[in-house]
User: Fold these one by one.
Assistant:
Number 1:
Amino acid sequence: MADRDGDSRQRFLPKHNLSLFFLCLSLSLSVSLGGCSEDKRTETKSQRDESAASHPQPAYGDTLVEGSIGDATNLIPMLASDSASHNISGLIINGLVKYDKDVKLVGDLAESWEVSQGGLQITFKLRRGVTWHDGHPFTARDVLFGFQTITNPNTPTAYAEDFRQVKKAAALDDYTFQVVYEKPFAPALTSWGNLVVLPKHLLEGKDIAKSELGRKPVGTGPYRFREWISRDRVILEANPNYFEGRPYIDRYVTRVIPDLATMFLELKAGGLDLMGLTPIQYKRQTGDRFFQQSYHKYRYLANAYTYLGYNLLDPKFKDKRVRQALSYAIDKEEIIKVVLLGLGVAATGPYKPGLWFYNPDVKKYPFNPARALALLKEAGWEDRNGDGILDKDQEPFEFTVMTNEGNPVRQRTAVVIQERLKKIGIRMKIRVIEWSAFINEFIDKKDFEATILGWTTGFEPDQYDIWHSSKTGKKELNFISFKNSEVDELLEKGRRTFDQEERKAIYSRLQEILAEEQPYTFLYVPEALPIVHSRVYGIEPSPLGISYNLHRWYVPQGLQRYDRTELAP
Amino acid sequence: MISYLVRRILTLIPLFFGITLISFAVIHLAPGSPIDVLADLNPKMTAEAKQRLISYYGLDKPLHERYYQWLRRFASLDFGVSFSPDRRPVMDKIRETLPITIVINALSLLLIMLVAIPIGAYSASHPYSAFDKSLTLFVYIGFAIPTFWLALLALILFSVQLEWLPISGFRSLDYARLSLAGKIWDMVSHLILPVLLSAFGGLAGLSRYMRGSMLEVMRQDYITAARSKGLSEREVIYKHALRNALLPVVTILGLSVPGLIGGSVIFEQIFAIPGMGRLFYTGVMSRDYPLVMGILTIGAFLTLLGNLFADISYALVDPRIRKGGKG
């Protein structure tokens, strides 16, 4: 279930450049942002509300233990690209801005900000009186230092690009930080998360890549670093001086358990309080009395979707009608039922339902083989020689779909699609290739006919890199070679426009075109399935997931399980 | 004896460097590179930024030059710095993980010997008896059952149902607060299942070896001579036959080092033990070249050392080998 590795541990990372859409890597290497749960289907959520009706008194104390399949690599956010590292550093290090419960951008270390000069200039007013975990005061110089570090060519980071758009950055005084952009760049604001805030007094003049801060981070966040035993556990403790108030839970431990089955047994035995479930575990293994009493399950749409992408340079897929026909021939609901055990929804485009830029009124492709056959016939594909396979110019309709090794969900999806296409006379072969070889030898070289892959999405609608015609070069992300001049214009305009309503119109139109063109058959948005011990109160699911307000979670006095730990002031 | 030893050691040196050369070439031939994790399909990664990373990790230099640099560093026992974002010295990572892996493997090897040798010896002294057959069946079951599956069953029984043993890791959460005895029991209880299960899978090989070797010895003239002297069957078997039959068995232990390191990956994965097997696995998956090279080199070194000990012990007991050169 590698696909889920990232998703299952969805946590809102206040920092991340929220427009990131890394491909879901097979090894939980993908950076995943929060999820969505405005949906009312969460049975557990309503149960939760009843049980919380007694509203026990919040209390300090106790320890929460979370399971993670991978160890963190580096706790300086700009240097790490794995979700384990970002999950942990997200509790230690704040950004200038973050998303609130309703996915609205609000201040974190910034109290307020002002966008001026037609979007070219952003001025952040910073919170006063914030201190780093070592007691040193936090100022605008720390932000400037972080900015200089991330744009320094010697810093090995994957996140520099957004910050290279900045022409000038300056700390006007201790609590005012100002940036000026080359040209208006709407996704800019969201990029000022915790990637760029660094303790200058500890890092100045040092090589950040070799700094011990990566192992012993110092931040301003709700939790401060205590201990990291490599490949075993990371222990954080509450920051008593946190500017939003001391977190209730004393200690937060992340245990590394690489095997999902072992992790589940550990949960069952009470060794873990929090983990992400697989669909099987969610549906079939956590329904008994024990689990109902001891745990609460949550489900919300992950920030990711899986698609079947067509190489548009391939003559077979050049015709829009063929792509539409394939979308009609594939039963998305069946895939969700069989592969995800119903824990997901059909995707209609590249955004997940429920976000402000999602357009629900696009052309949809309900399962309809007859319609598929009619469209194929229009496009010249018919079974003329009676062998059961459609043909055109004596060529049978067959193609190979590729996907990466180590992601059984994608492989099973491919099998379900194969069966459906066979029924309308299309022969689809499946080829599963190890990740690196798959990307380097086939995707990057555009040497594929079709592929099943996924994107991790964020809370920022800009997808310039995936759909713009200028991004069809080698090793670029529009590897299916989608070219549409209206889409190009929309993407460019979307980047220049700051007004949310205007942007909404732009991206709604983008989704309409993509739905009509079907460069991908958008398959499904999976759900993240966290489970948390029932002694924990204060969890408020939101489109961001559940962990965004972790510092407000608490365990009432009588239910606490671990001893109090003394915190130094 | 000295000259034999010198000859053996001298042949090991080129062999060792041959191994490092081949390892180096093979891991670099595998598709992908350490920057893929950061760079593959990442929209925030421009070609220029990618190029910077490539030169940051020194991947733009030709392979032979990189091997030469690796050798130069190796000469001062420096395996370089890991490509993982933590940028820690490879040596530190190996030092952290090697002890626990060696402890588990040594214990499991010990257990295998303690169980397999008596089984093999008994089977050989009563060949084709019902007991021999059932023992054979038993060890083959151990060999055939997928260990990860058996491990999960054992976890469900001993850890979830009975709550006798901890499930994963090698220290409890409150380890630091335990008394000394508590700490020792804590460690031991975490090791019981991994050691038992890895030993179970290894019983078949050694016990069969033992049985074969013992049957071979029993056919020798000196056993017949011992019997004809009127020694009891017990004395014949346990004093004369067993000792001789043990020799080839003990020497194969020296050869089992690479298998043990490889097998550790699975156990460390299931039981979440922070050992070298897992370190190696994640290193390979992220193409962390210095780390992979470091572990392969240590593995090669330990294997060659094992071989050398096997040779020496053989030579010590068998004059034909010791004096081989002189005919």
Number 2:
Amino acid sequence: MHRFANPTQFNRLTAPVRPVLWLLACGLIGVGLYLSLLASPPDYQQGDSVRIMYVHVPAAWLGLFIYATMAGAAIAGYVWQHPLADLYTRAAAPVGACFTALCLITGAIWGQPIWGVWWVWDARLTSVLILFFLYLGFIALVDAFDRPQRGDNAARILVLLGTVNLPIIKFSVDWWNTLHQPASIARLDSPAIHASMLWPLLTMALGLSCLAFAIILTRLDGEVARRRWQMRMQRQMAHNRAAAAHDTPAVVTS
Amino acid sequence: MSPSSVTDAAPATQSAYPIAAVLPWWRLLGQLLRVELSSQWHRRGDVITVLAFYFLVLILAPLGLGPASATLRGVAPGLVWIAALLSVIMAVERGIRPDHQDGSLEARFFTGASAELIMAAKAIVLVLTTILPLILVSPMIFAVLAVPASAMVPGALAILLGGPGLVVIGLAGAALTAGARQGGALLAVLLFPLQLPVLIFGAAALQRALTGEPVVGELQILAALTLFSLPVGIMAGAAALRGLIRDDA
């Protein structure tokens, strides 16, 4: 893992991956949208409104998964002082927040015709809303300090505190038997969803994952460049100060 | 002098301050508690402000929702806990930020106490100065909100069991934001998601008490949440404290 600790090496490694991810994202989302909107059958109960599931479910998975990767990065940052870990959490947080928001919004649009309400205070919905606020809290905290390093230190601890919420979201549909339906894909026995719907869903999930990590890696590249620029500016300022101090010596003081 | 006697004479604790080698942790904790209590005493206005805030939030309900007893009784469980949550957020912010700004937080580290011990002392004292007053005034609060007397004991027990959890998690958040540019609003954004479970089960306990159902289950969950929050909050808060001190150095 420490092989990637050097930002230059990391950049050399990810620079060819980024365009591939963007292309994969475009292709898979294109195919996935065709499959889910046109080629897959409407649900026998929900009709065409089932199609929003092909965006809603991947968005929910990604909202959770990106938070989990941020928690992993926070541990790496805390334990090994890995220099890229904090940059990763900074790059990933807004992306995770967007997918969580997308999940909540598509859920509300789906809930209106099917449940008859935009929003219910169901355990799953509430815990995903909390996840969204955890992302917002992270984004607020990480930039609330004068020195970025302090923000990183504080935000790591917040990310780790928030991981308590992840199992609550996952198991909320099992622990509290409320309105939101239980998992139908990730089950020990076979998925409770027909293959004609499973394939579009998996294609969309893969495509949106590629999109998420294409955005994150591009943002990470930007964060690295920004950090590097800040360091250079600091060095330049220190150099200027030293030069100024050198140019106006003893005359002033003595 | 043989080399072995030199190593034997080396102090057991690696601290620059000799007091750490002298005091065992429980005496250190006692000292820290005394320091925290006296600093709370010097800022006793804050304790009263927090209590007044709690009262005022609750008094807004009859004024805003109308004085009908049935309405008040309906919203009382959630309202009591929302007010408690807001009061705790106000209280924890005053638990760390002033100490950080006047340097007395850093001074506590000079005693050789670990960050965990400092957090534990702060948590104990803040529970005494925040949660205990909330419990003491709860008969009045319940009377104002038309809660029947039979629900008072379970309601107060719920605050007693859930409150320390709120304080400990709140302190961790306060330690995270103590060095930040802005305080209150940021702290609230961080803490609401983390403190929500206590709010939910605390309000549920009072709700069930109002209808005369047994509340043991809710009280057990509140106790479990607090027991879980104690180590997590103290360790996270201690990590934040160490970051705070290290960054200042």
Number 3:
Amino acid sequence: MTAGVATTAGPKAYLSRRYRLSASHRLHSEAYSAEENRAVYGKCNNPHGHGHNYAVEVTLGGPVHAETGMVCDLGDLDAFAQTNLLERFDKMNLNTLDEFREVVPTTENFTAEVYRIFQGFTGAKVVRVRIEETGNNSFEIGEEFERG
Amino acid sequence: MILLTRKAEFSSAHYYWNEAWTEDENRRVFGRCANKNGHGHNYTLEVTVAGEVDPVSGFVVDLKELKEILEREVVSVYDHRHLNLEVAEFAAGTGMVPTTENIAIAIWERLEGKIPHAKLHRVRVYERSDLFADYYGER
């Protein structure tokens, strides 16, 4: 994990970190007629879009390294999130991004995309991503934890 | 099976330091957390237990009793204490750095087997609202 330091694996724990980002989207499918889009997506189909303050919760699972007491280096995780999450999606219109050219930027699809992106983090295994779209809605994707 | 969660809070000081490493290594790995004068957090503890609902009481566990166990086993030991200097499991020589992960593991060890009529399911420790660790007893 941490560069230049030998580590020994200990008990398995899960570490979760929350990031906040604000983005706009419009829910609209080319597969539907204008009327069907309004029927399916309601006010989320407003042609000019709308936005949310998303809270993205990333969970890493793995052994706690005996020397550091950590599952992974938080600085490495934050740096990865800064480059691959915040700089890509914060203050953006999700519909304009390549990731959502073929799929509707619902928070389900956004969560799946963020989970896919975090599989590229090498510091520890990302086992779950949960995104709160508002205080009332949240979406999560990940492995079923092996609970002892 | 029902899962039941009880919260508790404690405020503690700590710092991160591995005695086997040089000062430079400690500073490189732990950054600001290696300041030996310590710093502190308001921790939130969530303890989840699993059990069957008693047909007479309608309880999985008596919440008042669970609150007392958390107070006795954890809060009275950790609250307004310096974890490195005043709590046995993180003392010099143990090699246990008081990270959020290790605090969750230590609290599991303190509580396991002490909660009547229910099985300890999860210990979650929030260091801040944007950072928390979960431990399910997986060794």
